[in-house]
Design a protein that fits this description.
CATH topology: Nuclear Transport Factor 2, Chain: A
Helix content: 25-40%
Structural class: alpha+beta
Distance between the termini: 38 Å
Largest sheet: 7 strands, mixed
Shape: globular
Strand content: over 45%
Oligomer: single chain
CATH architecture: Roll
Order of helices and strands: HHEEHEEEEE
Number of strands: 7
CATH class: Alpha Beta
């Protein structure tokens, strides 16, 4: 898959809320995930660590009010998209989070993801 094809499929699956298929189909077993300093899980490496990170994030949500992912923008082996989530979290109450997601693709798989957003306690 090209970077554009991976990007389009990732956005399609995320819009459908099908994160498990996204991980299985598009992510490299050696995936790296980086969050901003101060995040609950700032770094994870490997498929199992990414899944655990996702499960922890989902477990912290009391109610999802809405989410929107923007269309991907591709350049060579990278793509980015915006992501907005409106949710009520166990620890922080209801909040709207906006972030930029950056992905690196190698051999048709996502090998690195990095998220840029302001940590609520640092806003």
């Amino acid at each position: 898959m090209t970077t554009q094809e991976v990007a389009n499929r990732l956005v399609e699956l995320c819009r459908a809320g099908d994160f498990e298929t996204c991980y299985r189909e598009l992510y490299s077993p050696e995936i790296e995930s980086i969050e901003p300093d101060g995040a609950a899980l700032p770094y994870a490496k490997g498929f199992e660590a990414i899944q655990a990170k996702g499960e922890k994030w989902q477990a912290g949500i009391v109610e999802m009010h809405g989410a929107e992912i923007g269309d991907p923008i591709c350049a060579a082996d990278h793509f980015s998209c915006t992501w907005t989530v409106d949710a009520t979290f166990k620890e922080m109450g209801r909040m709207k989070m906006e972030e930029i997601c950056l992905y690196k693709v190698k051999d048709g798989k996502v090998v690195k993801e990095q998220f840029f957003y302001t940590i609520p306690s640092q806003a």
